[in-house]
Amino acid sequence: MYCQKCGMDNLENAAICQQCGGVFVYSQPTRTSGMAITSMILGISGFSMFGVFGITWIIGLVFGILALNKISKASGAVKGKGFAIAGIITSAVGLALLLTIIGIWLFVNSATTFSLHKKLEMHDDFITTMQMSGRPDIKGIICVEDKSAPDRSCENILFVNNESEKQFSAVTMNMTCGPKGQEPVRLSWQFAGKEKQADVYNFTITFSVGENAVSTNKKKIIYDGTEQVIFEDARQKIYIRPEK
Q1: Cα–Cα distances in Å, from 156 out to 77, 173, 177?
Q2: Is the pTM of this model over 0.70?
Q3: Domain segments of the chain as ranges
Q4: Share of the chain above pLDDT 90, in %
Q5: Residue 186 belongs to what H/E stretch?
Q6: Which residue of 1, 19, 218, 231 has the lowest C-beta tally within 10 Å?
Q7: 154, HSE (Cβ side, Cα atoms, 13 Å)
Q8: How many CA atoms lie within 13 A of 84 on its CB side?
Q9: Looking at 49-53, 113-117, 200-204, which range is the least confident one?
């Protein structure tokens, strides 16, 4: 071991120079932290497989922190600080991205579940309303009377009494009436509940008022078993009469 101060050739492992008393400083060989490199690789590669649900990034983050702590205590004997920092940053960013996506998914899922529950509540409300309203029980006949030609008149029953149907089933019916070659009158009606011992119906009447024009009338009818006029003009009369 040559002394840099006086040039004296000393023993290989001498601690001080035998001539000038100078202290020899041995530099320790440096190495790169394998843990720091592993942390960086895990942090970067995690993006290609989405961190395997975060496990890769968690390991990369732990390795990076441990490697950075070890490097800081090695007094220069271990290097790779940049690799460790890169591993910590990429792993942290990956985990943050994964948690954000999970949060968005949970929010969307919660919103969808809430919407489904709302629809179910609305459906239950509808069922309850229909159960309370019951079914029609006052029989009648829908009559479309052509005033110019009574023989062209049409009739249809007000509702079909089907005991096998559920109590809350909606009653909706349709009929079309008109002479051949002319635009017919179209009626549709739906049972809407009960009111003071009477059956309530919503009627829609559609008929031609010109070559390319139609008129639509909507009317609420409370039928108590006596004749009820739904619509009447100079040509026709539409009404409900009791069933004989």
Answers
A1: 101, 10, 10
A2: no
A3: 1-32, 36-133, 140-242
A4: 18
A5: strand 185-195
A6: 218
A7: 16
A8: 20
A9: 49-53
With beta carbons less than 8 A apart as the criterion, state whether 184 and 146 touch: no
Q: Containing H/E element for 140?
A: strand 140-146
Q: Using alpha carbons, list the distances in angstroms from residue 229 to 83, 190, 219.
A: 90, 16, 10
> CA–CA separation, 157 vs 138, rounded Å?
11
Tokens of 20: 């000038």
Three-class secondary structure of residue 100 per DSSP: helix
Buried b (16+ CB within 10 A) or exposed e, 30-65: eeebebbbbbbbbbbbbeeeebeebebbbbbbbbbb
pLDDT given at position 167: 47
Whether 193 and 133 have beta carbons less than 8 Å apart is answered as yes
Question: CA-to-CA distance for 242 and 244, rounded, in angstroms?
Answer: 6
The helix or strand, by DSSP H or E, that contains position 141, with its residue range, turns out to be strand 140-146
